[in-house]
Amino acid sequence: MSIIDEVKQRTDIIEVVSQYATLKKAGRTFRALCPFHSEKHPSFFVYPEQQSWHCFGACNTGGDVFSFIMKKESIDFGDALRLLAQKAGVTIPSRFEPEAGKDEKERLYQVNQASSQYFHNLLLNSPVGERAKGYFASRGLSQKTIADFQLGFSLNNWDALKQYLMERGYTESELLTTGLVIEAEAGGTHDRFRNRLMFPIFDIRGRIVGFGARVLDDSLPKYLNSPQTLIFDKSSCLYGINLAAAAIRQQNLVVIVEGYMDVITAHQNGFNNVVASMGTSVTEKQVGTLKRLTKNMALALDADAAGEEAMLRAIGYENTLDAEVKVIILPGGKDPDDVIREDAKIWQNLLEEALPIVDYTFNMVTAELDLNTARDKSLAVDKLLPIIAEMKDTVRQAHYLQKLARLVKVSQRSLEAALGRIKPSQGKRQAKEPSQERVTQALHPLLSSPVEEYCLALLLQYPELKGRDEGLLSEYFENSENREIFTAWQQANDLSSLKDGLDSAIWEHLDSLITRSLPANQIEQKYANCVLRLREKFLRSLEVKRAGVLALEAESGGTAAELAKLEEQGIEVSVQLGEVFTQKSRGSQERRR
Ligand SMILES: [Zn+2]
After folding, report:
1. What's the 62 CA to ligand 1 centre distance in angstroms?
2. Pick from 209, 343, 376, 569: most CB atoms within 10 A?
């Protein structure tokens, strides 16, 4: 259970509000003189069943226990959470303490950013950068591309970067932590990257996590990367992801290449859904990142590099992604960079002709065999049948079983029998996933609001929704943590600045929304429906509360003015509800058409 849910579950709003106002029971609610504005007649209500409050007087607003404490103590969400956690006896893990580890990482991002600007500036404006500039020009890169990818150049000097950064107040130990400066065997420290083309590596939030560097001459190693650091983990990085994420989502396809230059040239030619793995094979962590954007992957592989093992791993991702992985076969040892520079149309054709990875593997395996001999037939079955056995989709499985049967000229039935002998191990592995899901679901009893969270997940994962005005208001979110994220989202330009604007106590919740799997189609319509549902929920709840207050007032002889005011509020609410119904019926008519 999240820490926010745990605090909610152990907190009673009646108890908390009682410390700030004298509550009197009134039917199923409690009422008091509003603790936020001065009044003679109580118009402040607390609802124990919903764990919420509402002021029908001058405030005309309400919320949950967090928003009550935030307003009353003039503190932010994180501090309200910490205060309530303390009252409820819930220990907040230290990682949710404000700024835990945040400063150190933040500092590393800053060092990388400053270094990147330094390298970029050297490339563009210094005479020594001419050769590097010449290299990029020979590869046909435009000024804009060089700027978009923040390409740079490092001096042929042992401590130029070190001096530059230390003059700007960074300490030697910080520079060592980023790996930009390294310890020499003979003692002392010096720059890691010297006389190299510099490729800053960004994360999906646009922060520089490390660098790739390439020599200008024939010296070795040809490529050098930042070492593993607090913020750089090569196995989870995807070069170009910061510039590619939107296109990947939009085209519902990611193309994975191997080299930095492949990505850069592809983007310059309008193929914006291209990223590079940071090694020859794609890792589980990289697939995890991509999964949030699309389920469809195409691997552009150098025919020699496409080892059998890499293929088998990639086939495994088909099952993880529950989608098809395709292979783009590059002609005669060429890189995507070469192909695209030669003729972008050829690349386009290769993309269109990409083969499903299983078909490709069939070709690869059988190319070396003589399928007229019994020995090679059985070799082909040994290699291909286990791949077929792993498939989750039974239709696909049947398709490839048939293909294999035709290929080796044996009956499909005998292959099915062989398949049956392989399958049990697979069954065991599959059984795990759904049961885990069920456990997680059971741990979230009624604390969360599915519609609120769905709506936020859409907003967070589809930045293009920001431009759409569906009239979503922060008060439609009953849960303070959701309201908090929505408000921060309205002010932030991207996920990175959004996170920076939020208390670390809310990050766990934010991350769960960012990583939630969502449908990939008709996003705008789903968002519009979602806003409509939130609005309806908000208005209905308000209407029920208001009617309750009106009944109470009428019973206890409220003044005519107060009754009139409540009536007025009621009219406003019903007008708005009417609008919701009109929009809803319009929506369903459009769908029927
Ligand atoms: Zn009030």
Report:
1. 9
2. 209
Given a contact cutoff of 8 angstroms between Cβ atoms, the answer to whether 3 and 508 are in contact is: yes
Torsions phi, psi of 43, nearest 5?
-125, 15
Q: Give per-residue pLDDT as tens, 144-203.
A: 999 999 999 999 999 999 999 999 999 999 999 999 999 988 888 999 999 999 999 999
Q: Return the structure tokens found at 153.
A: 């150049």
Dihedral pair phi/psi, residue 417, rounded to 5°: -65, -45
Q: Angle 308-321/284-291 helices, nearest 10 degrees?
A: 30
Distance 544 CA to ligand 1 centre (A): 18
Q: What number of CA atoms fall less than 13 Å from residue 448's CA on the CB side?
A: 22
pLDDT score of 447: 54
Please give the distance, rounded to the nearest whole angstrom, from the Cα atom of residue 549 to the centre of ligand 1. Answer: 14
How many whole angstroms separate alpha carbon 95 and alpha carbon 108?
A: 18
Q: φ, ψ for residue 133 (rounded to 5)?
A: -60, -40
DSSP percent split of the chain into helix, strand, coil, nearest 5: 60, 10, 30
CA of 56 to the centre of ligand 1 (A): 7
By three-state DSSP, how is residue 417 classified? helix
Contact 118, 152 (CB under 8 A): yes
For tokens 């793995």, name the residue: 277
CA of 565 from ligand 1 middle (Å) equals 14
Q: What spacing in Å lies between the alpha carbon of 57 and ligand 1's midpoint?
A: 5
- Please give the Cα distance from 525 to 512 (Å, whole number): 23
Residue 43 CA to ligand 1 centre (angstroms)? 7
State the amino acid at position 88 in one-letter form: A
| CA 276–ligand 1 middle distance (angstroms) | 56
Residue 437, pLDDT score: 32
Q: Phi and psi for 442 in degrees, rounded to 5? A: -65, -25
d(CA 105, CA 212): 19
Distance between Cα 488 and ligand 1 center (Å): 25
Ramachandran bin of 46, using left for φ above 0, alpha for ψ from -120 to 50, beta for the remaining angles? beta
Return the half-sphere exposure (C-beta side, CA atoms, 13 A cut-off) of residue 402: 6
569: tokens are: 């509020």
CB-neighbour burial class of residue 72 (10 A; exposed 0-12, middle 13-18, buried 19+):
middle
pLDDT tens digits along 61-91: 899 999 999 888 877 888 899 889 988 888 8
Q: Residue 37 C-alpha to ligand 1 middle, in angstroms?
A: 5
